[in-house]
């Protein structure tokens, strides 16, 4: 945890909800809109807690947070807490499909089309080299806490690259923008949905095809990342007794375009999450009205 858990999570008899908010802006967009509707339509007080992906499951199981609104797939935690302990319950799909991959700027891919095949990456390692990557090409990653197989992929595919962590999504975006401004080549771990594609067009490098179970052993991974329908999870007690708040969060389902619209307002236009959520809510009432408990519609 990077912030102390709220004492109000799972509070009996109080109209308070505590949501886990991850560090990437897409997840912040989900929480911003859910928070706005819980507060302004249902009269709840909402607390948010910033938690890394794995600790968030522990916090959710213990009732220190009530819901995670964007999970990118953690089968070990799902097996432990949903199937075995039954302290967490699925909250349904978010409506957004996530995909992690390796990307190069489109301006580079247009000049060197064969770079989009992983088998040709070593040919371009020198062009992707940075002071941080030493004598190897740089594969730019974000936070070490994110879902990533990149170190194993580099080793198992015998690529002459060094994984370099920028530390956060914001730091990675800053680096990508700087490369793009100078029209420099770069190779980066990145993901969709993500609003930055609108400003810096990027083309995915095709890794060996993903097949079910090819990433089961983290040390032996030699395949691409899957396309993952992003999921919500609720504390089991909250899912059962959370009233209108639990209903709204279970019903919360929007599109990639919706999420990117709010994320762009937060990250690029520099609106506060609350103002970004308000802007989206005012423009999309037919979408969110369906999420409300029956008596609130």
What gross morphology would you assign?
Answer: globular
Q: What is the helix tally?
A: 11
Radius of gyration: 20 Å
**What's the main sheet like?**
9 strands, mixed
Strand content: 15-25%
Write the SSE topology:
Elements: E1 16-21, H1 25-40, E2 45-50, H2 53-61, E3 67-71, H3 75-84, E4 88-105, H4 106-111, E5 137-141, H5 150-156, E6 161-165, H6 169-181, E7 187-192, E8 202-205, E9 227-235, H7 236-241, H8 243-251, H9 256-267, H10 273-283, H11 285-288
Parallel strand pairs: 1-2, 1-3, 5-6, 5-7
Antiparallel strand pairs: 3-9, 4-7, 4-8, 4-9
Describe the structure.
Strands 1, 2, 3, 4, 5, 6, 7, 8 and 9 form a nine-stranded mixed β-sheet that branches. Strand 5 (137-141), helix 5 and strand 6 (161-165) form a beta-alpha-beta unit. With 297 residues, the chain is α/β, with parallel strands linked by helices. The chain is built from eleven helices and nine strands. 35% of the residues lie in helices and 22% in strands.
């Amino acid at each position: 945890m990077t912030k102390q858990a709220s004492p109000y999570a799972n509070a009996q008899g109080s109209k308070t909800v505590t949501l886990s908010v991850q560090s990437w802006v897409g997840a912040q967009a989900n929480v911003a809109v859910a928070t706005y509707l819980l507060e302004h339509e249902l009269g709840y007080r909402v607390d948010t807690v910033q938690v890394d992906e794995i600790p968030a499951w522990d916090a959710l199981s213990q009732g220190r947070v009530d819901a995670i609104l964007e999970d990118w797939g953690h089968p070990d935690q799902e097996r432990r807490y949903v199937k075995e302990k039954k302290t967490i319950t699925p909250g349904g799909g978010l409506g957004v499909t996530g995909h992690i991959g390796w990307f190069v700027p489109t301006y580079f891919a247009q000049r060197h089309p064969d770079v989009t095949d992983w088998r040709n990456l070593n040919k371009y390692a020198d062009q992707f080299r940075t002071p941080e990557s030493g004598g190897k090409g740089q594969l730019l990653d974000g936070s070490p806490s994110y879902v990533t197989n990149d170190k194993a992929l580099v080793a198992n595919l015998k690529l002459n690259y060094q994984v370099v962590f920028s530390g956060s999504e914001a730091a990675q975006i800053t680096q990508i923008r700087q490369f793009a401004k100078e029209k420099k080549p770069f190779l980066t771990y990145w993901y969709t949905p993500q609003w930055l594609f609108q400003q810096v067009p990027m083309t995915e490098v095709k890794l060996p095809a993903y097949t079910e179970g090819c990433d089961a052993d983290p040390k032996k991974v030699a395949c691409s990342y899957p396309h993952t329908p992003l999921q919500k999870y609720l504390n089991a007690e909250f899912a059962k007794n959370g009233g209108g708040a639990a209903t709204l969060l279970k019903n919360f389902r929007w599109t990639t375009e919706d999420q990117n619209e709010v994320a762009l307002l937060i990250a690029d236009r520099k609106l506060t999450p609350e103002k970004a959520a308000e802007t989206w809510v005012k423009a999309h009432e037919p979408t969110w009205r369906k999420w409300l408990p029956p008596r609130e519609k």
